[in-house]
């Protein structure tokens, strides 16, 4: 079966997704939504390079996208990274109401809507998306939190090998040297700032129960059917002794070059689930911390004990494993989402499925 797919956004994740849609034999590209005026009117193939013309021209006309006949929209703009959730939510609801299924990576708060959890960042998203799905007889799926799977479904899948679990510890390690956005690298993540300077990500994660990253821990606890109690947050930084040049600009000496964030979740008043994020622009600081490009480590203490890791790499487009992982997780879900009953899916309710494709 072939699926007609629209790609919305052509940034780090969007270009990976666009390439997969063009190359995948069971997908037909039917539209491309762009934000850069210089891309409007460009054949989708020219946004990738090295591809034969597709005949599909990029547009910034949302009404034109809504008028297209498509089975699914891969919605992967920057979303709430640069905007409030309102704009992306409006887009998503219009697409769903028009009868198009949507797989999305745009608003992290849309990753999980468990009963009884009302997060400020999500607002009335759940109700609005449900109404739009009912109106358009469509289905919505959000892939997870940066990139999804690795810090929620992967630990849950590996727990199927476990008997007694004493402690579950998942670690993300990401090299940020090739990330080009100055806004994201410095203003959001705090690289290049003095170690005691506030950063947006620290403020976001420090407000634990209002943080989108909390959703990953909550999803693990809910998947294991245990009640999550208190969650403690901590942050560590390491500074560079010399200037470092990265894609986003110059990182001065004496400023942050690596950060480590911890969430430690308690079950029955003892630490049971730890999620840890280590983001770097160099391996020369904090050498005792794990290193890698796009790497995830899982350690489960118990009987049996488990240690496992995932390393994701690509040389195409953004060249970042996290970006291509978001794109492939989205697109591999398209067939399941298109065949699902109308409504909202998340990583716990999405039916088990494989992914990837083989060229003819």
Automatic annotation (TrEMBL):
Its EC number is 1.4.1.26. Signal peptide: none annotated. It comes from the Bacteria. InterPro entries: DAP_DH_C, NAD(P)-bd_dom_sf. GO terms for molecular function: oxidoreductase activity. Residues 149-351 form the 2,4-diaminopentanoate dehydrogenase C-terminal domain. Keywords: Oxidoreductase. This is 2,4-diaminopentanoate dehydrogenase. It comes from Mycolicibacterium vanbaalenii. The gene is ord_4.
